[in-house]
Amino acid sequence: MKNYNLSNFQFTFLLLLRFIIGWHILYEGIAKVLNPDWSSIEFLQESQWVLSGFANWVISNPNVLAIVDFLNTWGLIAIGLGLIFGLLASLAAIAGALLLFIYYLNAPPFIGLEYTLPAGANYLIVDKNLIEVAGLCVLAVFPSSNVFGLDSLFFCGKRKKLK
Hints:
Blueprint: H1 8-34, H2 41-45, H3 52-60, H4 62-85, H5 89-106, H6 128-141, H7 150-154
């Protein structure tokens, strides 16, 4: 068992980070469920970097596209709920980091890559996906749900103390 020796102030901001990122990811999933016309096809058509071949393969197979859309939508919801409620939060953080890194690899903000979909801001190398990936990695390494979350109830024999 590790003792992270975090102050209450530090722990509070770690929890705040978990809730904020969890809410953002959950909301993205819910927005996709509530929009019957949503599909990842527009995003995948924009793919211009290392995963562009995979994106084109997904687009060319309607059944695969439907599976990807389902997994993306419900994966976002599960990850968001896991982070907010602190249930398997380290796993949710790792899954979220991987998913967002896949988004990043499909459409990185590099010089020379132009996208038709609006980005919402101007980025160079670091974008909101990469920032959330870093935040999720922090949450995976500092499992606050073992102290404050459902993990502390269900896995109380394996609780780690943060302070």
